[in-house]
């Protein structure tokens, strides 16, 4: 059996990536988006929102203990989880939409992995210096000075990681209270465990795993490669303009043989995932466009037009190669697929908004006792029993009346009353934001169908009013 | 590698190809990242640690028990013990509270009803049924008809001492004579009494037989069942005028009851269950829908 002379290793050591600092339009856009996303992440739990005395005043709160989800004026109960499912579907289709319109913009700008890696790399440059200094330091032996720098960098990373992991828990409890409890050691163990876990993952993923997450762990790049088509914006090295690449000196000596690329390697130096965009579109490219900034700066220096590396669709690239003038990248945003996604996305959003506006905040559910189904009373009447649940989703107590519709001769009482107090309806006050359980007995004459359908009716006895009804069944021997 | 040929290199990626191809689609032999290998080794280490610490390897007669001594049965015992410790204070409080004072302490009352619900499933369902609806000869505890009384204290007393529990002096005892079998009444007289009972329970219209039965009833039955047939709870004599029958209200069943009498037995429970459990059972039975208020001192014998 012949073996290759030099069998390739089954495993590949990670190649160091030391991205160089760069400035330009896309770098500034990335700064702005980083500032906004981090501000949202760290700031949101501290927004207050007045909901009155019966509900928490945190604008965004996932109250797992009480099974409530608060988002500004919206309060979601567990049975309304489909709104959250709807949001997730919108987020999914939103990703499709973004991919269809601007390619892997999520990966390049807004993905937490990208944002935190970017932040960590900035810290790295702050401590270790820019690319060349970082490469030198990585190769240097472990001296005290190197150890000091590493300790400084890792401490800063750890601090950011701790703030990141620590901020997460504030979404699940009242932030100011939890902050006090956290530092006084009286918070729930799960708060500390979550903080520790997320601190560790942030430190590890942002500091060390970085582009490995995008290339090996994350399914999204793989899905996106299937979603990109010839109308998708991707970062493109315009090879027909750049090749034959060669140094500036050679190009100046033989202008006819060389293209615009002066092979300065700046596009590779600034890449946070360590790829060479000149090899064409690839899974490692998160389309952060930093190579565009780097190349534009070089082109400006050597007096050639910008855009040797640029956002460009495959379609436009083909046209350009045949001599068409470059189209502005923004003109690729709207095409049929984008519009289709946008339509679906907005339709779901509109449907959810409508459902939110029309949803009822008080309802009734009834479950009939099954064992025994009916009880004969001493006066000959038949009694059925029901567990009636009245759900008050408003943040204030509400007085309600429960009556029956379609059951002649019925009298109602609860387990807190004697049968002598029975009447055509029972009243109760449902506490704010909770479910009142009423065990309701109904007695009706024995003469009648063995199974009789009727309905419980619920009426709110306050100014706002409203109500609900619930089909139920009365059974006789 | 099995084909023994040098494999091709993919031009675009520079990565070796696996060698197979479907419709022009070939598979890259991309090397795994080294850190992935480390995580694999880490899982192996974890597995070794797990095998040392926890029950893991089946042997011929036993299995390796692990150094931590953990077992699912032990975990369950721990949970059960924790639960018992958790509810012990409630049990003590219920045992220390006279049953007529329970309703004034809703928290205890609710705990008692729920505890009784569980105890009922263990001790009572054999006769009274899982829904406490009873059966022929076993009273339905959901309805508003009580042989001995339906207030909390009376129910508790019935559970404590039972009904006709042999050899127990305090047990509830009511002995109806077997009027036919013991020849206290003739067969025709028994039929007349049955006709009377059918009439006062509004199942039959008055007849000559029921009028004759009425006289016999007045002579033989009113001591216990009362002149109007509405029964006497102090004696455990059932109300014969309502819609509820322990054995059945049809002519044949009533005749069998008068002829042979009925001597249903419920065991005493004070020698089997503790005070708190009996109290919880009473609270549960009381909560089923027929529970009556505790009678006030001066209205002792008024209510039916």
TrEMBL record, chain A:
Q: Which residues form the 4Fe-4S ferredoxin-type domain?
A: 249-280
Q: Which UniProt keywords apply?
A: 4Fe-4S, Electron transport, Iron, Iron-sulfur, Membrane, Metal-binding, Transmembrane, Transmembrane helix, Transport
Question: Which sequence ranges are marked TM in the entry?
Answer: 29-47, 81-102, 154-173, 185-208, 339-358
Keyword Electron transport among UniProt keywords? yes
Classification via Pfam families: Fer4_18 (PF13746), Fer4_5 (PF12801), FixG_C (PF11614)
Family annotation (PANTHER family): FERREDOXIN-TYPE PROTEIN NAPH
Give the protein's recorded name.
Answer: Cytochrome c oxidase accessory protein CcoG
Q: Which organism is it from?
A: Sphingobium cyanobacteriorum
Q: Which gene encodes it?
A: ccoG
Automatic annotation (TrEMBL), chain B:
- Sequence ranges assigned to domain Cytochrome c in this UniProt record: 111-201, 208-289
Q: Which cofactor does it need?
A: heme c
* Subcellular location(s) per record: Cell inner membrane
Name the InterPro entries on file: CcoP_N (IPR032858), CcoP_N_sf (IPR038414), Cyt_c-like_dom (IPR009056), Cyt_c-like_dom_sf (IPR036909), Cyt_C_IC (IPR008168), Cyt_c_oxidase_cbb3_su3 (IPR004678), Cytochrome_c_Oxidase_Subunit (IPR050597)
TM region positions: 35-57
Its pathway is:
Energy metabolism; oxidative phosphorylation
Per the entry, the cofactor note is:
Binds 2 heme C groups per subunit.
Q: Name one Pfam family in it.
A: Cytochrome_CBB3
Subunit details for this protein? Component of the cbb3-type cytochrome c oxidase.
- Protein name stated in the entry: Cbb3-type cytochrome c oxidase subunit
Protein source organism: Sphingobium cyanobacteriorum
- In the UniProt record, the gene name given for this protein reads ccoP
């Amino acid at each position: 059996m012949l073996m290759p002379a030099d069998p390739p290793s089954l495993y590949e050591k990670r190649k160091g990536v030391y991205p160089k600092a760069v400035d330009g339009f896309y770098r500034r856009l990335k700064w702005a988006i980083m500032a906004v996303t981090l501000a949202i992440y760290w700031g949101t739990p501290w927004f207050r929102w007045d909901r009155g005395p019966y509900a928490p005043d945190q604008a965004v709160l996932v109250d797992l203990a009480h099974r409530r989800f608060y988002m500004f004026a919206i309060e979601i109960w567990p049975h309304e989880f489909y709104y959250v499912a709807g949001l997730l579907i919108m987020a999914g289709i939103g990703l499709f939409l973004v991919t269809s319109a601007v390619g892997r913009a999520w990966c390049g700008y807004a993905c937490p992995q990208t944002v935190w890696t970017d932040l960590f790399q900035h810290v790295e440059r702050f401590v270790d210096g820019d690319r060349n200094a970082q490469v030198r330091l990585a190769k240097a032996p472990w001296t005290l000075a190197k150890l000091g720098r590493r300790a400084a960098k890792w401490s800063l990373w750890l601090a950011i990681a701790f703030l990141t992991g620590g901020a997460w828990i504030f979404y699940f409890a009242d932030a100011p209270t939890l902050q006090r409890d956290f530092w006084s050691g009286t918070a729930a163990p799960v708060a500390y465990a979550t903080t520790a876990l997320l601190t560790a993952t942030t430190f590890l993923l942002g500091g060390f795993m970085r582009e490995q997450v995008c290339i090996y762990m994350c399914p999204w790049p793989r899905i996106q490669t299937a979603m990109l088509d010839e109308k998708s914006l991707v970062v493109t090295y315009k090879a027909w303009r750049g090749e034959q690449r060669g140094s500036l000196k050679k190009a100046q000596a033989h202008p006819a043989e060389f293209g615009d690329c002066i092979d300065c390697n700046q596009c590779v130096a600034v890449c946070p995932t360590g790829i060479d965009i000149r090899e064409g579109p690839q899974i490692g490219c998160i389309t952060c466009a930093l190579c565009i900034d780097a190349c534009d700066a070089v082109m400006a220096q050597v007096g050639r037009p910008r855009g040797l590396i640029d956002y460009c669709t495959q379609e436009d690239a083909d046209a350009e190669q045949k001599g068409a003038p470059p189209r502005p990248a923004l003109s690729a945003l709207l095409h049929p697929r984008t519009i289709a996604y946008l339509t679906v996305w907005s339709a779901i959003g509109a449907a959810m908004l409508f459902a939110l506006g029309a949803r009822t905040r008080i309802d009734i559910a009834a479950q009939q006792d099954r064992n025994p189904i009916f009880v004969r009373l001493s006066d000959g009447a038949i009694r059925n029993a029901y567990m009636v649940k009245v759900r008050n989703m408003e943040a204030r107590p509400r007085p309600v009346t429960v009556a029956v519709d379609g059951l002649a001769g019925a009298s109602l009482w609860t387990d807190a009353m004697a049968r002598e107090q029975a009447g055509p309806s029972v009243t109760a006050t449902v506490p704010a934001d909770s479910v009142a359980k009423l065990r309701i007995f109904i007695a009706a004459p024995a003469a009648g169908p063995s199974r009789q359908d009727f309905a419980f009716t619920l009426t709110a006895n306050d100014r706002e009013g409203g109500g609900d009804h619930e089909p139920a069944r009365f059974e006789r021997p | 590698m099995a084909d023994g040929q040098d494999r091709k290199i993919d031009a675009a990626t520079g990565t070796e190809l696996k060698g197979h191809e479907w419709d022009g689609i070939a598979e890259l032999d991309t090397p795994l990242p080294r850190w992935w290998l480390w995580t694999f080794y880490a899982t192996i280490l974890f597995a070794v640690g797990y095998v040392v610490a926890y029950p893991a390897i089946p042997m011929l007669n036993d299995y390796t028990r692990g150094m931590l001594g953990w077992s699912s049965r032990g975990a369950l015992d721990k949970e059960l013990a924790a639960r018992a410790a958790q509810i012990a204070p409630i049990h003590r409080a219920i045992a220390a509270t006279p049953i007529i004072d329970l309703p004034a302490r809703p928290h205890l009352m609710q705990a008692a009803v729920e505890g009784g619900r569980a105890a009922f499933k263990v001790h009572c369902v054999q006769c009274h049924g899982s829904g406490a609806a009873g059966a022929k000869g076993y009273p339905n505890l959901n309805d508003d008809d009580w042989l001995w009384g339906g207030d909390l204290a009376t129910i508790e007393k019935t559970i404590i001492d039972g009904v006709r529990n042999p050899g127990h002096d305090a047990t509830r005892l009511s002995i109806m004579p077997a009027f036919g079998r013991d020849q206290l009444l003739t067969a025709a007289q028994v039929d007349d009494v049955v006709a009377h009972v059918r009439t006062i329970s509004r199942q039959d219209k008055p007849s000559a037989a029921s009028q004759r039965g009425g006289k016999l009833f007045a002579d033989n039955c009113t001591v216990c069942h009362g002149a109007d047939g509405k029964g006497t709870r102090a004696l455990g004599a059932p109300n014969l005028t309502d819609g509820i029958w322990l054995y059945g209200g049809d002519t044949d069943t009533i005749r069998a009851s008068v002829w042979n009498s009925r001597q249903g037995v419920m065991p005493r429970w004070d020698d089997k269950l503790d005070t708190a459990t009996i109290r919880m059972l009473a609270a549960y039975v009381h909560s089923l829908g027929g529970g009556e208020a505790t009678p006030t001192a001066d209205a002792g014998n008024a209510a039916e």
